[in-house]
Amino acid sequence: MSKDYYKILDVDKGASQDDIKKAFRKLAHKYHPDKSGGDEEKFKEINEANQVLGDPQKRKQYDQFGSAGFNGFSGGSGAGFNGQGFGFSAQGFEDLGDMFGDMFGGGFGFSRQKKQTPRGQDIQVDMDLTFKESIFGVEKDISVVKSNSCQRCAGTAAEPGEGMHKCSECDGSGMSTQAHRTILGMMQSKKMCVTCNGSGDVPKKKCTGCSGAGVTKEKSTITVTIPGGVDGGSILRVRGEGEAVRSGEPGDFFVRLHVESDSYFKRVGFDLHTTKPIGFTQAALGDTLEIKTVDGVVEFKIPSGTQSGTIFRLSGKGVVHNVGRGDQMVTVLVNTPTKLNKKQKQLLEEVDLKE
Question: What is the distance between the alpha carbons of residues 7 and 173, in angstroms, rounded to a whole number?
Fold first, then answer.
């Protein structure tokens, strides 16, 4: 009798692979035989449907020929709960291993064992930059005491020339298995073997340089290249310069930047804002001004009749970034004279500048 696998999983025929996986997980959790209210026959049925619809190639075959083309399920090796075979391949239980592993922190007993590559811890330090260093970038050396891979054994923990042998604790898998009793029955969780640090191998003879640790604690100098345009609070990553670990990958080195403020320049994005006080005569007649920039002093002409508060742009005098530089925005502030002699007052009265 033909089975409607789509109906069994309660999904439409146009359902995506992700939708099918979600539906299977939901139903598998509901009907698990070891759970109160579970249904072993229903569980077998939904797992059979998932094995077909969860595989794009098998799903295509099913859509053409129906479930009759999958009678092979009746003669499988049997995965079984409580020692009883279900009559189909245990391959379909990989999704179950993932699902219950997510819930209980380990595999379900059907998931493939994989060696885990250990990774060292990350290191974070703080660095102070001057305002100008943050604009143009700078290269700095940072000294830290951290774990480095042992140079004598290259991090293997074995004395050179002695070699390695299979870890007896995990039988070379790199993973240790522990059983836990849960509401769904006995579950297995797999964790990295602490004896071999997840490598599956242990040294025949421990390295005399690191006493079998694979790492040595020492002072290290790390060169950090700070790119131009960084802002305060930015965090830079130097990959592989963190703590080393035996038979694994080192962590990363993070640098949190703190930029000193500047009394003259104000940064807004990639632009720099400054003010330039000028005299009344300069504003009225125009003049060539000397403007301070992060590159040094430059000359800049203002036209006659310049009003207080006028903003002039100095192109390319701002913050460095990946496609060039920002600009410097100069706000001109006209100072009104407060102390005039008799002749100066007389001249201004003759000009009669009321507007």
Answer: 40
Residue at 320: amino acid letter: V
SS3 of residue 89 by DSSP: coil
Distance separating alpha carbons of residues 334 and 312, to the nearest angstrom: 14
pLDDT tens column, 43-97: 888 888 888 888 888 888 888 767 655 554 433 333 333 333 333 343 444 444 4
321: its two tokens: 């970034």
Please state whether the predicted TM-score (pTM) of the whole model is above 0.70.
Answer: no
Strands (E), 150-252: 164-166, 175-182, 185-192, 201-203, 215-226, 235-238
Distance between first and last Cα of the chain: 99
Tell me the angle at which helices 40-53 and 17-31 cross, rounded to the nearest 10 degrees.
170
DSSP state, 318?
S
Nearest residue to 44 (alpha-carbon basis) of 93, 86, 100: 86
Segments of 77-132 assigned E as strands: 123-129
Residue 185 has a CB neighbour count (10 Å cut-off) of 14
At 229 the pLDDT is 93
- The alpha helices in the chain, defined as continuous H runs, are 5-9, 17-31, 40-53, 56-65, 94-104, 131-136, 280-285, 342-351
Give Cβ neighbours of residue 324 (< 8 Å, ≥ 6 apart): 316
The Cα–Cα gap between 235 and 124 comes to: 9
Query: Which of 126, 149, 143 is closest to 219 using CA atoms?
Result: 143
